[in-house]
């Protein structure tokens, strides 16, 4: 019997494992409370998802993503869509009575689409 015939993508497992380690390192320091919930950002190659979570109860209070109809059919660049997701999330948070959050970048670097989402949320009035 020879080697496995399953193709292995070089660098994929180590990249996801590294991001998971970074996210755990961030999560050791950051926790969302009822007064100041946690803004969690998840990024894929095409989409952005942002949620505001109360970790004491384990509930998602507000969420927004590029899959929302108001953002999805926009023909702009991904970073511009991310900024719109941040603005949409901030509006929904203010409607829910949330004004301040703790930012959890999810192990991703604070640049590009992550920074655009954060800037959009700040511009729309969310405090962090």
From TrEMBL:
Keywords: Ribonucleoprotein, Ribosomal protein, RNA-binding, rRNA-binding. InterPro entries: Ribosomal_L18, Ribosomal_uL18_bac-type, Ribosomal_uL18_bac/plant/anim. The keyword RNA-binding applies. Gene3D superfamilies: 3.30.420.100. GO terms for cellular component: ribosome. The keyword RNA-binding applies. It holds the Pfam family Ribosomal_L18p. CDD domains: Ribosomal_L18_L5e. SUPFAM superfamilies: Translational machinery components. Residues 1-23 are annotated as: Disordered. This is one of the proteins that bind and probably mediate the attachment of the 5S RNA into the large ribosomal subunit, where it forms part of the central protuberance. Belongs to the universal ribosomal protein uL18 family. Part of the 50S ribosomal subunit; part of the 5S rRNA/L5/L18/L25 subcomplex. Contacts the 5S and 23S rRNAs. This is Large ribosomal subunit protein uL18. It comes from Nocardiopsis mangrovi. The gene is rplR.
């Amino acid at each position: 019997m020879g080697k496995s015939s399953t193709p292995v993508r070089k660098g994929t497992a180590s990249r996801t494992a590294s991001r998971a380690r970074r996210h755990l390192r961030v999560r050791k320091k950051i926790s969302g409370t009822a007064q100041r919930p946690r803004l969690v950002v998840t990024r894929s190659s095409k989409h952005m998802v942002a949620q505001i979570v109360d970790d004491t109860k384990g509930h998602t209070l507000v969420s927004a993503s590029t899959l929302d109809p108001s953002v999805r059919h926009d023909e702009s660049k991904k970073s511009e869509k991310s900024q719109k997701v941040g603005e949409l999330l901030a509006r929904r948070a203010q409607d829910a009575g949330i004004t301040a959050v703790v930012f959890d970048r999810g192990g991703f670097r604070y640049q590009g689409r992550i920074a655009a989402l954060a800037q959009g949320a700040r511009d729309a009035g969310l405090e962090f």
